[in-house]
Amino acid sequence: MNKTVSISLFNWACLIRELRRRGYGQRESGAFLLGRDEGGKLRVKRVVYYDDIDPHALDKGYIHIDGRRYDALWAVCKEHGLSVVADIHTHPGASVRQSESDRTHPMIPQAGHTAIIVPFFAQFFCLKHSPAAVYRYICNYEWKKYEPGPGGQGLHVTLL
Fold first, then answer.
1. Domain residue ranges in the chain
2. What is residue 15's three-state secondary structure?
3. Dist CA 11 CA 68 (whole Å)
4. Cα 72 → chain centroid
5. Which pLDDT band holds residue 121 (cuts at 50, 70, 90)?
6. Is residue 22 within a helix (H) or strand (E), and if so which, with residue range?
7. Hey, what CATH topology would domain 4-158 get?
8. DSSP-derived 3-state class of residue 31
């Protein structure tokens, strides 16, 4: 499945601001992006932050979610008729390459799942100034990297 994850510019700005706030500019933060398939694009409708489903997810400076906490995520999906279309998390510095932990511990270990990495602990507002990396999970800890934007097949931030 090579569908684009689509999010409005307003929602992207709110997401980046909230990731920055939750990470205090000093630690990783992240979220699940929930949505549905609309005309071949996975449109983001709701965001569930990691530390909302597991209050200790960010405590170590890197992301670790207790697997027992995923029930809260599935409950939100069921309540709103949505599914997880991607996950997003921040990295320190300019690198948006997957860490070994990112690569070997996908948040949703299903083929086709999208993971987005934002640099500098989300200290910048938009893709133009802070290029995110988009990865699609293949299987067996293998990923394919996509370029964001309208020409890519990973992430598209739209003016809606």
1. 4-158
2. helix
3. 28
4. 17
5. very high
6. helix 9-23
7. Cytidine Deaminase; domain 2 (3.40.140)
8. strand
DSSP one-letter code for 26: T
Which residue, 132, 107, 106, is CA-closest to 119? 132
The verdict on pTM exceeding 0.70 is: yes
Alpha carbons 109 and 152: distance in angstroms, whole number: 22
* pLDDT digit string, tens, across residues 31-69: 999 999 998 889 999 999 999 999 999 998 889 999 999
Q: Which residue has the tokens 């299903």?
A: 110
Per residue, what are the HEC states of 84-131? EEEEEEECCCCCCCCCHHHHHCCCCCCCCCEEEEECHHHCCCCCCCCC
Q: How far apart are CA 113 and CA 143, in angstroms?
A: 10
CA–centroid distance for 152 within its chain: 17
Residue 50 in contact with residue 58, Cβ under 8 Å?
A: yes
